[in-house]
């Protein structure tokens, strides 16, 4: 009798396993078609000299050696590092400050919480045109205020046209556009922090800064690590925001686009850039999974 029950149990487990495989098979197939195949094909292309007519000539590691000897590649890495540092720190700090403020009780708090989310949900193309108008050298609001109202300078500056200042504009735009997602993550965690901890810290003589340092930050440590790593991963691939606002800011994705589709087209080198960038992203994702999620 016991053996029969064990046999029935093993048959049931096998049937459930088969059903599970059948249910996930369509999703696995779609992921393989839309994600895994393009990655493998991109790795394949990185070893070829690819012509626009579709012909390919095997060149081995030549694309990688050419890339590592290209000064523009290292310049794009430097621009990307500055972009990542500025945007990650900016969105984290601004998101944390907004979350702490929105966690306090005041009139119209729910309305303010909703308004903070508007930049994140606004269409990128719409807000980009708005920002381009703000910094327009002729009719822009920025130059009008700086030159005509405050008289800080006599020269109207084309901040977006100059690659150096355009990088600063792109960083500020990204912080403004994407800090709401950091704000939401921080606010969700802050609302779960027991108020008893703050009361105990106040009894121990901690002022507002002390309560923030000894209670808030330790409670937010996991969320801060999550926000920082996810923002690095997302912004390392950020293309549309930068290209639409200031295509002269040559981050790695913009440099890859120019190699693949503009000027002297070299899709083999572009594929090599993507492969190197993929390896960096895989390392960052591994770090996030092992050190933050602790899987």
UniProtKB/TrEMBL annotation:
<dbReference type="GO" id="GO:0055085">
    <property type="term" value="P:transmembrane transport"/>
</dbReference>
<comment type="similarity">
    <text>Belongs to the binding-protein-dependent transport system permease family.</text>
</comment>
<feature type="transmembrane region" description="Helical">
    <location>
        <begin position="166"/>
        <end position="188"/>
    </location>
</feature>
<keyword id="KW-1133">Transmembrane helix</keyword>
<dbReference type="InterPro" id="IPR050809">
    <property type="entry name" value="UgpAE/MalFG_permease"/>
</dbReference>
<feature type="transmembrane region" description="Helical">
    <location>
        <begin position="21"/>
        <end position="45"/>
    </location>
</feature>
<keyword id="KW-0813">Transport</keyword>
<keyword id="KW-0472">Membrane</keyword>
<protein>
    <submittedName>
        <fullName>Carbohydrate ABC transporter membrane protein 1 (CUT1 family)</fullName>
    </submittedName>
</protein>
<feature type="transmembrane region" description="Helical">
    <location>
        <begin position="257"/>
        <end position="289"/>
    </location>
</feature>
<feature type="transmembrane region" description="Helical">
    <location>
        <begin position="114"/>
        <end position="134"/>
    </location>
</feature>
<dbReference type="GO" id="GO:0005886">
    <property type="term" value="C:plasma membrane"/>
</dbReference>
<feature type="domain" description="ABC transmembrane type-1">
    <location>
        <begin position="77"/>
        <end position="288"/>
    </location>
</feature>
<dbReference type="Pfam" id="PF00528">
    <property type="entry name" value="BPD_transp_1"/>
</dbReference>
<keyword id="KW-0812">Transmembrane</keyword>
<feature type="transmembrane region" description="Helical">
    <location>
        <begin position="73"/>
        <end position="102"/>
    </location>
</feature>
<dbReference type="InterPro" id="IPR035906">
    <property type="entry name" value="MetI-like_sf"/>
</dbReference>
<keyword id="KW-1003">Cell membrane</keyword>
<feature type="transmembrane region" description="Helical">
    <location>
        <begin position="220"/>
        <end position="237"/>
    </location>
</feature>
<dbReference type="InterPro" id="IPR000515">
    <property type="entry name" value="MetI-like"/>
</dbReference>
């Amino acid at each position: 009798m016991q053996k029969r029950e064990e046999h029935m149990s093993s048959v049931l487990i096998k049937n459930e396993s088969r059903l599970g495989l059948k249910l996930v098979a369509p999703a696995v197939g779609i992921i393989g078609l839309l994600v895994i195949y393009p990655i493998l094909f991109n790795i394949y292309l990185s070893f070829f000299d690819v012509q626009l007519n579709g012909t390919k000539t095997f060149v081995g590691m030549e694309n990688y050696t050419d890339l590592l000897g290209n000064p523009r590649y290292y310049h794009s890495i430097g621009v990307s590092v500055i972009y990542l540092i500025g945007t990650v720190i900016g969105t984290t700090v601004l998101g944390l400050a907004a979350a702490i403020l929105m966690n306090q009780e005041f009139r119209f708090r729910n309305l303010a919480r909703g308004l903070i989310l508007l930049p994140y949900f606004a269409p990128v193309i719409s807000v980009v045109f708005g920002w381009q108008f703000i910094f327009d050298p002729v009719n822009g609001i920025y130059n009008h205020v700086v030159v005509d109202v405050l008289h800080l300078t006599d020269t109207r500056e084309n901040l977006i046209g100059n690659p150096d200042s355009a990088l600063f504009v792109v960083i500020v735009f990204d912080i403004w556009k994407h800090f709401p997602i950091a704000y939401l993550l921080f606010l969700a965690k802050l609302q779960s922090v027991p108020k008893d901890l703050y009361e105990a810290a106040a009894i121990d003589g901690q002022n507002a800064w002390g309560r923030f340092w000894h209670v808030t930050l330790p409670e937010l440590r996991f969320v801060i690590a999550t926000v920082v790593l996810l923002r690095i991963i997302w912004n390392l691939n950020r293309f549309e925001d930068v290209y639409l606002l200031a295509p002269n800011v040559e981050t790695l994705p913009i440099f890859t686009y120019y190699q693949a589709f503009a000027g002297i087209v070299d899709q083999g080198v572009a594929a090599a850039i993507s492969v190197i960038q993929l390896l960096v992203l895989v390392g960052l994702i591994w770090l996030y999974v092992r050190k933050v999620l602790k899987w």
